[in-house]
């Protein structure tokens, strides 16, 4: 029984991991002035246990660290994948360029500190990963260093010990990596005298000019389209215009592209905000009607929201399904990840989409059978794409990529490979008819389990040398980490505001995503009361995560 608490067997390792993770998560619930470092407490608890001589089995330690990292980055990739490439459009390009600039400034600051102080660049890579609160970057750096040392003839155990030393520098720099960014956000708000209400209203106006769905009620008054079909009237117009219902002589019907328009027809249109003026030009000015008016006039037609739950629907466009012609039901809007989209003919559906339909009850029931509408099916996890995606990610991350001037080939590793595959799977999955849908709670569960395993393994492997590293000069790492945190973030915030004229909430999202720090995101949303920050966080997070992982490996390879 004593081996269970003092040994190094499998049962002891499982017990130790469970205790470390449970204690760390419990401590993460406590906040100081509204700020908490959350699950990062797992790292410090595991360092303490390791320092006290309570160790885990080395084989279990290595597996938990790598597998936890894979689960963490893969779940992130699946979540942000659907909107990854879209984030590069319009303002997303500027946001991502600023985020990349922040990453490169951190690398430059790290390099300059290395030259001035003489501190090992390997150690500075660990400091940098902690200063920018990027755990996958630390994992990639450790993995790259260990592989390179083994390839150079060093014993695997010794190579693993060398790579684990990076975690000590990471742990020392991490707290200020969080607190420093929070300080800059608070100071920035005060220095620039930010009016939160005005900033929020500006974002609301901007968001209403995008692709989100907007309902319009118009009367046909344009003589140029009298007698023409709807298809002819909309010829050359944007596809984000859907005519849901038409009222003629007191009778409401669902029109098709072949329906002829007559003067005085009243039509209910769903379109994007940017197409509003075009709709007015084509049909006529808006009239004072509401959707309830349509419902009162015709009880035969009803509006329902159906959920796509059949995997066979994934990747099919609304044009392919041709619901209006086949069932006499009109699809007006599609709700995806909380955003309402116009039901364009070329819009590809995927599992988890909610579609708004208009028609008779009997016909809508048939459409429900077509798309599934069995929400309980969404509770079942789709594990096949996840595990095969991990297979591809591990293979892709192990492929050597050679850069001129670097002696060792770069590998994306167990952080970068699965992350890229997950992003591609999340984006292209519906197009390839692959169901990648997971509920938000399931995704968060995988992510939290993964990062908990990884942090516990990192701390348990680094704790033995942690105190000696600090006493031996590691206290300077706190200063180095503070510089790597503050300089790039401060410069980026100033450029974003003064040059790019970004909104304060956009800057909060840029900084939290650019530092890949969910603690900063949680603070900004809680303190300033809006979800706009998370939208911009998701815009820059994928590219930033990839860059952080890549530059950490490159810095390690430059030291070999």
Structure overview:
With 560 residues, this protein is of the alpha+beta class. It folds into three domains: 381 residues, Na+/H+ antiporter like fold (Up-down Bundle); 63 residues, Regulator of K+ conductance, C-terminal domain (Alpha-Beta Plaits, 2-Layer Sandwich), CATH 3.30.70; 64 residues, Regulator of K+ conductance, C-terminal domain (Alpha-Beta Plaits). The chain contains 23 helices and eight strands. The chain has a four-stranded antiparallel β-sheet, sandwiched between helices. A four-stranded antiparallel β-sheet has the order 5-8-6-7, covered by helices on one side. Helix 4 packs parallel to helix 17 and helix 5 crosses helix 6. The longest helix is centred in the N-terminal third of the chain and has 36 residues. The mean pLDDT is 80.
Set down the secondary structure blueprint.
Layout: H1 2-6, H2 10-27, H3 41-51, H4 58-80, H5 91-117, H6 121-131, H7 135-151, H8 156-191, H9 196-207, E1 213-219, H10 230-233, E2 241-248, E3 251-253, E4 266-272, H11 276-282, H12 291-297, E5 302-307, H13 318-321, H14 323-327, E6 330-336, E7 339-342, E8 354-359, H15 361-371, H16 383-397, H17 413-428, H18 440-462, H19 466-474, H20 476-499, H21 504-514, H22 518-528, H23 532-558
Helix pairs in contact: 2-3, 3-18, 4-17, 4-18, 5-6, 5-20, 5-21, 5-23, 6-7, 6-8, 6-20, 6-23, 7-8, 7-17, 7-23, 8-18, 8-19, 8-20, 8-22, 16-17, 17-23, 21-22, 21-23
């Amino acid at each position: 029984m004593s081996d269970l608490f003092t040994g190094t067997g499998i049962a002891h390792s499982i017990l130790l991991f469970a205790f470390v993770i449970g204690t760390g998560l419990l401590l993460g619930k406590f906040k100081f002035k509204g700020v908490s470092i959350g699950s990062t407490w797992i790292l410090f608890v595991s360092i303490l246990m390791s320092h006290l001589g309570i160790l885990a089995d080395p084989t279990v330690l290595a597996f938990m660290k790598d597998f936890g990292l894979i689960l963490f980055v893969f779940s992130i990739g699946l979540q942000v994948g659907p909107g990854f490439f879209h984030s590069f459009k319009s303002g997303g390009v500027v946001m991502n360029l600023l985020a990349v600039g922040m990453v490169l400034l951190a690398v430059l600051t790290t390099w300059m500190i290395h030259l001035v102080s003489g501190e090992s660049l390997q150690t500075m890579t660990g400091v940098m990963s902690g200063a920018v609160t990027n755990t996958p970057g630390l994992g990639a750096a450790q993995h790259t260093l260990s592989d390179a040392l083994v390839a150079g003839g060093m014993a695997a155990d010794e190579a693993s010990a060398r790579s684990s030393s990076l975690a000590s520098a990471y742990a020392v720099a991490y707290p200020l990596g969080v607190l420093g960014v929070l300080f800059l956000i608070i100071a920035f708000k005060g220095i620039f005298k930010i009016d939160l209400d005005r900033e929020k209203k500006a974002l609301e106006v901007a968001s209403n000019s995008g692709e989100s769905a907007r309902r319009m009620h118009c009367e046909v008054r344009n003589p140029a389209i009298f007698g023409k079909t709807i298809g002819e009237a909309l010829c050359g117009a944007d596809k984000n215009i859907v005519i849901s219902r038409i009222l003629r002589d007191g009778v409401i019907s669902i029109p098709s592209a072949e329906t002829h328009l007559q003067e005085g027809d009243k039509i209910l249109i769903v379109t994007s905000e940017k197409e509003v003026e075009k709709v007015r030009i084509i049909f006529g000015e808006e009239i004072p009607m509401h959707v309830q008016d349509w419902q009162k006039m015709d009880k035969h037609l009803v509006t329902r929201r159906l959920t796509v739950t059949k995997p066979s629907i994934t990747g099919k466009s609304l044009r392919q399904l041709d619901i209006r012609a086949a069932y006499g039901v009109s699809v007006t809007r599609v709700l995806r990840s909380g955003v309402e989209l116009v039901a364009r003919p070329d819009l590809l559906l995927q599992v988890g989409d909610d579609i708004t339909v208009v028609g008779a009850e009997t016909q809508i029931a048939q459409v429900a059978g077509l798309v599934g509408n069995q929400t309980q099916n969404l509770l079942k996890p789709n594990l096949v794409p996840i595990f095969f995606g991990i297979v591809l990610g591990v293979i892709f991350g192990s492929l050597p990529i050679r850069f001129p001037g670097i002696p060792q080939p770069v590998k994306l590793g167990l952080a970068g490979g699965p992350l890229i595959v997950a992003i591609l799977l999340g984006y292209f999955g519906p197009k390839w008819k692959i169901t990648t849908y997971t509920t938000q709670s399931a995704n968060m569960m995988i992510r939290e389990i993964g990062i908990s395993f990884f942090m516990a393994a990192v701390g348990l492997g680094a704790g033995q040398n942690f105190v000696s590293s600090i006493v031996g000069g590691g206290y300077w790492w706190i200063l180095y980490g503070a510089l790597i945190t503050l300089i790039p973030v401060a410069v980026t915030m100033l450029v974003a505001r003064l040059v790019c004229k970004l909104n304060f909430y956009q800057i909060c999202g840029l900084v939290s995503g650019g530092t890949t720090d969910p603690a900063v995101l949680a603070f900004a949303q809680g303190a300033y009361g809006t979800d706009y920050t998370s939208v911009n966080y998701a815009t820059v997070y994928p590219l930033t995560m990839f860059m952080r992982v890549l530059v950490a490996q490159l810095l390690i390879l430059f030291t070999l």
